[in-house]
């Protein structure tokens, strides 16, 4: 493990998804302790996207933005909202120069699949329809997210392809949860890794799927055909249960003719980029913004 990260492991928080309400409260407290960058030149606005039901979003508008990203927070499909994602969405907007539409999707287990995906897809359609109001080019809209949010972003790309929906310029999949089968080496063997481990992974998928069978829109690794999807950036953490499914998905995208940038971050664990003092975390966070900036450029 990276020595700067390893020093924090004894103090790194643990969460138990067996009680989703308690986990959300704890997660919110952790997020409140993370500072957001000071961005006086950026407009930040809370909106409600009309849908069934309506979806809360927080919109970040850097000066001069021409592209946008529909951004999905992590939290195992169970935790998180636009408030907990604020420090990270602000960083993405600042470093990428893109409008960030951070989605407050419905959470499991109260709202199992496909509720979160339906919310995210409604926001994608709304963003394209309101591109002029947001000041962005509708041909420069990406999807992206961390962890469960990365899985949702991948599912949005699949659904938009299959339904001939809005064109998606790019997909950014950071430590994404993609495969409910949990059969990879990392999913089976990382049982005590910091923050996210197999037990938490099992609980996350159980809450998200409920009694429903998994489909490719729930678990994108199940998709038989990955052709025709947008170019992708896939990032994985070395000590993360999602690691092997992320790498496998990137390879399958490449084999399907999709352009992919794959970055496996050595010495890191799931969510370790929240340790902002570590050099590797600073590089991870900076790269997410730089990747989006390039993807949405001319």
In short:
37% of the residues lie in helices and 18% in strands. It has 298 residues and is of the alpha/beta class. It has an 8-stranded mixed sheet with strand order 1-2-4-3-5-6-7-8, sandwiched between helices.
Please outline the helices and strands.
Layout: H1 3-6, H2 20-32, E1 43-49, E2 55-61, E3 68-72, H3 86-96, E4 99-104, H4 115-129, H5 131-134, E5 141-146, H6 148-162, E6 170-174, H7 185-189, H8 198-209, E7 232-239, H9 243-255, E8 260-269, H10 279-295
Parallel strand pairs: 3-4, 3-5, 5-6, 6-7, 7-8
Antiparallel strand pairs: 1-2, 2-4
Helix pairs in contact: 3-10, 4-6
Protein name: Alpha/beta hydrolase
Keywords: Hydrolase
GO molecular function: hydrolase activity
Top-tier CATH class: Alpha Beta
Order of helices and strands: HHEEEHEHHEHEHHEHEH
Looking at the overall shape, the CATH architecture is 3-Layer(aba) Sandwich
Assign a percent range to the helix content: 25-40%
User: How many H/I helices?
Assistant: 10
Radius of gyration: 17 Å
- By CATH, the topology is Rossmann fold
Specify the CATH homologous superfamily: Alpha/Beta hydrolase fold, catalytic domain
**Helix and strand composition category:** alpha/beta
Could you say how many structural domains there are in total?
Answer: 1
The chain-level mean pLDDT equals 96
User: What distance lies between the first and last C-alpha atoms, to the nearest angstrom?
Assistant: 38 Å
Tell how many strands the DSSP assignment holds. 8
Low-confidence region ranges: none
> Biggest sheet, strands in spatial order?
1-2-4-3-5-6-7-8
> Looking at the structure, what is the overall shape?
globular
InterPro entries: AB_hydrolase_3, AB_hydrolase_fold, GDXG_lipolytic_enzyme
Pfam families: Abhydrolase_3 (PF07859)
GO molecular function, one term: hydrolase activity
Domain Alpha/beta hydrolase fold-3: 69-272
